[in-house]
Design brief:
The protein has 3 helices and 14 strands. It folds into 2 domains: about 90 residues, SH3 type barrels; about 80 residues. By secondary structure, the chain is an alpha+beta fold.
């Protein structure tokens, strides 16, 4: 009886041990309404000073100051750049933007003024080289003749695809110079499905 109990316990615990050893999957962010490209000037000893205040509502109930050390790690999606930090924007009121300001998904309002530029997803992705994010369900690694219609057997490009435009949850892309196809750029929950190729990563703001 004792041996049976030990065996059952090992069976139950084995998958848990394996999942812990494998490490957590990176969580794809919700897309919101666009992206804020925040210009960051290097300071003394190379740190990145940020002087933007965070508010619970626009100009009401100050929560603190934007902290460059706790910003969401989006380098695996948009690439690495020392002078530009991307923040997902979830809402807009005039010049005020509601952004995801830390890696646990908390949100607050800020006014970027001259320190950043807001882009809709269409203007941000248009003309750039995109790629599918890793770890997606098989259904998302798929090209279509039209949004959601006419699935194609075209092999996925090894070097990404050029993004022509976005339309709702879909993107018109060029996997090569002679093809125009559609793919989903965000899933049904509103999470991002594509990122930027290394050659098209975020450049410094000018």
């Amino acid at each position: 009886m004792k041996s049976l109990i030990v065996f059952i316990a090992l069976v139950i615990l084995a998958p848990v041990s394996l999942s812990v050893a494998a490490g957590p999957m990176k969580l794809r962010p919700y897309t919101g309404i666009g992206i804020l490209l925040l210009s960051v000037a290097p300071g003394v000893n190379g740190e990145k000073p940020l002087f933007l205040n965070l508010y619970e509502e626009p100009a009401i109930s100050r929560l603190g100051e934007l902290n460059g050390d706790t910003l969401p790690p989006y380098d695996w999606i948009f690439g690495i750049n020392s002078y530009t930090l991307p923040l997902i924007v979830t809402a807009r009121k005039g010049n005020w933007l509601r952004v995801v300001y830390d890696d646990v998904g908390r949100e607050a309002w800020l006014m970027p003024q001259r320190q950043g530029a807001f882009h809709t997803w269409d203007s941000f992705f248009k003309g750039r080289l995109g790629r599918f994010l890793p770890g997606l369900h098989k259904q998302y690694y798929q090209f279509f003749q039209e949004p959601g219609k006419g699935a194609l057997l075209t092999p996925l490009p090894k070097k990404g695809f050029k993004i022509v435009k976005l339309q709702d949850d879909w993107a018109l892309v060029m996997p090569d110079q002679n093809s125009l196809v559609w793919l989903r750029w965000r899933d049904e929950d509103g999470r991002l499905l594509i990122g930027l190729e290394k050659d098209s990563a975020i450049k410094p703001l000018t």
